[in-house]
Each structure stands twice: as C-alpha cells, then as structure tokens.
Amino acid sequence: MRFGFKALVDFGVTNTAGSPDQYVLACELVANALKEAKRVITW
C-alpha cells in the first residue's frame, strides 16, 4: 500500500469497531515491530 500502510489483518491484528478488517490500516514505525502482535483493537 501507499506510504507503507498495510491492512491491519496482515499484522495479525483485528478491530471491534465493526469496520471490515481489510479497510483498517496500520503502519509500522519500527521494522517488524508488529511481527509478533496478536492483538484486538477496541474503540
């Protein structure tokens, strides 16, 4: 994706906001920082 953003699910992270996961984006500020992440984002 543009500017280094990827779908949140590519990092193994999901959200509970009801938004389809493929439309929620994330960008690692440190290389491989989310490699081991298995999290849920709640907002």
Description:
This protein is mainly beta and 43 residues long. It has one domain. Helices cover 0% and strands 19% of the residues. The protein is built from no helices and four strands. It has strands at residues 6-7, 14-15, 25-26, 40-41. It has a two-stranded antiparallel sheet. The chain is globular. The model has no long low-confidence stretch (mean pLDDT 80).
Notable features of this structure?
mainly beta, two-stranded antiparallel sheet, 43 residues, 4 strands, two-stranded parallel sheet
Topology:
Layout: E1 6-7, E2 14-15, E3 25-26, E4 40-41
Parallel strand pairs: 2-4
Antiparallel strand pairs: 1-3
Give a quick summary of the entry.
The protein is an all-beta fold.
Strand content: 15-25%
Helix percentage: under 10%
Assembly level: single chain
Q: What is the string of helix and strand elements?
A: EEEE
